[in-house]
Design brief:
- This protein starts with 16 loop residues before the first strand and ends in a 7-residue tail after the last helix.
- It is of the alpha/beta class and 263 residues long.
- The N terminus is likely disordered.
- Helices cover 30% and strands 24% of the residues.
- Strands 6-7-8-3-9-10 form a 6-stranded mixed β-sheet, sandwiched between helices. Strands 2-1-4-5 form a 4-stranded antiparallel β-sheet, covered by helices on one side.
- It binds adenosine-5'-triphosphate and magnesium ion.
- Magnesium ion binds next to helix 1.
- It comes from Pseudomonas kuykendallii.
Length: 263
């Protein structure tokens, strides 16, 4: 069967990311630990790219560099052609742990970014909009302890979306959810991405999740991470887990990750 290309999504919002010759190392017990090695990758405006790779290979480090949370050591990191010099609300990260402030309501947690930028007074409506996007409008006045895990993660998403990001950086955002909530949230992530048109960089350990969500999946090697392969997912959304094209790509990805024989 010939795989069909997916239809284009709106891309005006999406940021173009270019990574060239990126290398990064940490100092660990007096030894130099190379983590990224001559990495080249680009994300086109509106594109969703997933990264798969062994634990500890450097995926979160890469995301932190793109978010501007980690100082650049070597290579080029460009957002729409301009060097990334630090954090910016156009590039926000959602981590595995929602890290909500327990003493603040859902609304106040989502408002944080606007508050920090002195925009909250004029733009309160954006908080309500962000909560509506993740379907939590009715829980605006709840406290984090009153939410389920999936709801808390949706609040974390709303907290990112309130900034109107042009690149959404997702580091195992569904990693702590039970499998049913996870499947529902995968659908949510696709819906939001298609609605909002931002670009996306997603790290996940779940091969199937990467193939369901991303236009392209990059498979990383062990540390120091380099790109072993790039899998193009030639399917429109929503995708189906048992689609033979996805099943074949899954087989390839697992083999590249050294898990081919056992699965
Ligand atoms: N601040 C730091 N100082 C020293 N070493 C670090 C630091 N941050 C990360 N490392 C090391 O860099 C390597 C890559 O870490 P990173 O968190 O990027 O991996 P990862 O691919 O995200 O792993 P996982 O899939 O388990 O989340 C690891 O060996 C880790 O010990
Ligand atoms: Mg990580």
């Amino acid at each position: 069967m010939v795989a069909t290309a997916r239809s284009p999504i709106p891309t005006e919002r999406g940021l173009r990311l270019d990574i060239r010759g990126l290398a990064h190392a940490f100092e660990l017990k007096g030894e130099r630990l190379p983590v990224l090695q001559r990495l080249d990758l680009s994300v086109a405006p509106g594109e969703m790219v997933a990264l798969l790779g062994p634990s500890g290979c450097g995926k979160s480090t890469l995301l932190r560099l793109v978010a501007g949370l980690e100082p650049l050591q070597h290579g080029e990191l460009l957002a729409d052609g301009a060097p990334i010099a630090g954090p910016d609300p156009s590039r926000v990260v959602v981590f595995q742990d929602p890290t909500l402030y327990p003493w603040r309501t859902v609304w106040d947690n989502v408002a944080l970014g606007l508050q920090a930028r002195g925009l909250l007074r004029q733009q309160r409506g954006r908080v309500d909009e962000a909560l509506a996007k993740v379907g939590l409008g009715e829980f605006a006045q709840a406290y984090p302890r009153q939410l389920s895990g999936g709801m808390a993660q949706r609040v974390a998403l709303a907290r990112a979306l309130v900034n109107d990001p042009r690149l959404l950086i997702l580091d195992e955002p569904l990693g702590k959810l039970d499998s049913l909530t996870r499947i529902a949230m995968q659908g949510e992530l696709i819906r939001l991405w298609q609605q909002q048109g931002y670009s996306g960089l997603l790290v996940t350990h779940d091969v199937e999740e990467a193939l369901l969500l991303a236009d392209r999946v990059l498979v990383f090697s062990d540390r120091p991470a380099r790109v072993l392969a790039e899998l193009q997912v030639a399917r429109d959304y929503p995708r189906h887990r048992d689609d033979p094209h996805l099943v074949e790509l899954r087989r390839q990805a697992l083999e590249l990750l050294g898990l081919g024989k056992d699965w």
